[in-house]
Amino acid sequence: MGSDRRFDMRFDNHRVVITAAGRDFGRTLAIQLADLGAEIFLSARSLAAAECVRDEIRARGHQQVHAFACDLTDPSSIREFASDAALRTDRVDLLVNNGSRYLEGPDLLSASDADVVDTIASGATGTVLTVKNFLPLLLNSDKPDVVTMVSACGTPGHQRSDAHDAFYAAKSAQAGFAEILSKRLRPQGVRVISLYPPDFDNADPLSDQWENTPRGAKDSLTAQSLVECVLFAVAQPRDCFIKAFHFEQV
Ligand SMILES: NC(=O)c1ccc[n+]([C@@H]2O[C@H](COP(=O)([O-])OP(=O)(O)OC[C@H]3O[C@@H](n4cnc5c(N)ncnc54)[C@H](OP(=O)(O)O)[C@@H]3O)[C@@H](O)[C@H]2O)c1
């Protein structure tokens, strides 16, 4: 982050897993957390995409970054991701459930059955199974956090998005899962933190646009602000359990 950085804490002792980090917000978060010193275990649906981001991070001088393939619609792929990560670390401090397929279209009939299955599987089933498979590593941490990128579409009564009903279903499932998990994992010291953003602008963190994106009261929510929300929540002392971030729309 640049000179007007609002967040100065380092994350050198954090081992962070991020799903779907081959592009867009997952990649952004991986690059930003690596810049702050975290060891990154990033996955993408294709190993090539994950390795590409790994190499971008290494080129910035940060070597503690590992790339994995993980298809969130495939339980065996998620299991393999967690078991491969466990060969390189005995603990995970932060799991970011970022991956979830987007499906456009307010008409229920506009999507194929396969698209519906894929959308719900990647966001809903994929999130549940990722937490399930990484939970043993999270419980080895003395500061475990699970962050889930839900969406305003996961908020009851929300209707402003043009996303397909299956995307609403996936995000509502993530929200319900995070809600119960938050209570059930609290006694074990795990904070479950969820973000419910509306559409946001996702500038490339390696471009000039990252520093120059307008962030005024009349502008759309930015990935920069969402990264700062995640960092802020995770950096709090353990008594401060920020459960959810909700955002007013422009
Ligand atoms: N962007 C927004 O305005 C917005 C608003 C609210 C919430 N969110 C949520 O924030 C998160 C990140 O958003 P984004 O804008 O970066 O998302 P995005 O641009 O729609 O990208 C979706 C990501 O999910 C991955 N993905 C899709 N299906 C997958 C599967 N089966 N297995 C593994 N990965 C899969 C994609 O990988 P591939 O590259 O392989 O396709 C891609 O990395 C998502 O959960 C999204 O729903 C986004």
UniProtKB/TrEMBL annotation:
Top-rank taxon, per record: Bacteria
A single MF term (Gene Ontology): oxidoreductase activity
Any one GO cellular component localisation term in the record: membrane
Family affiliation: Belongs to the short-chain dehydrogenases/reductases (SDR) family.
Pfam families, sorted: adh_short
Annotated keywords: Oxidoreductase
The keyword Oxidoreductase is annotated on this UniProt entry: yes
Name of the protein in its database record: Oxidoreductase
Record Gene3D superfamilies: NAD(P)-binding Rossmann-like Domain
Keyword Repeat: no
